[in-house]
Amino acid sequence: MSKNYTPTLITQPVFPLLPRTLAIMYETLRLYTLVPTIARKTTEHQTIKNITLPPNTSVHLNTTVVHSLPSIWGPDSLDFRPSRWLESSESSGKETLREPPIGTFLAWSHGPRFCPGMKMSQVEFVGVLYEMFRKWRVEIVRKEGETEEDARRSLTEVLKDSSPRLTLQVNRPQDVVFRYVARG
């Protein structure tokens, strides 16, 4: 970085004014979850419908399934739609982040053992995107003869060809090239 670089500070009063950026983060984590399963153990007898789990039973939550259930996220549950995270106040017209029902969004787990880095990751994500897109825009580098629509379709195919390993990994990242273009 240049010695003259001075980042714009995203202060505590400014952070809540950027709900769309957090909506992008949440929707990305919902569809491309970093941790495909969360392992837990029961501490006491648990009965779910007609199945009883004894204490000390291993339970694995499949976050990929939970994050894509149409019964939770709607018929477009597999579509990238950050607006599902936003709600507007009728009186002020101000957008705020919609909180999902407990247990339906597990990007940082949930309950007493949720990820302690949750808030830090949110602030970093918003800060990086804010700073980056304040000066730049991102565009797909199209192959010769490729239309914009073909390039978008190709990007979507590459993203859908991701695999859960220890974390989610895109299998062919080299198949899509981006460039950053200065604004203005």
Overview of this structure, please?
By secondary structure, the chain is an alpha+beta fold. Helix content is 28%, strand content 22%. It has a two-stranded antiparallel ribbon with strand order 1-4. The protein has a two-stranded antiparallel ribbon with strand order 2-3. A two-stranded antiparallel sheet has the order 5-6. It is globular. GO terms for molecular function: heme binding; iron ion binding; monooxygenase activity; oxidoreductase activity, acting on paired donors, with incorporation or reduction of molecular oxygen. Keywords: Heme, Iron, Metal-binding, Monooxygenase, Oxidoreductase, Virulence.
Strand content: 15-25%
Helix content estimate: 25-40%
**Head-to-tail CA distance between termini:** 21 Å
Helix-strand makeup class: alpha+beta
Query: So what's the oligomer here?
Result: single chain
Largest sheet: 2 strands, antiparallel
The low-confidence parts are: none
Number of strands: 10
Q: Number of helical runs?
A: 5
Strand order of the largest sheet: 1-4
Taking all Cα atoms into account, the compactness measure Rg is 20 Å
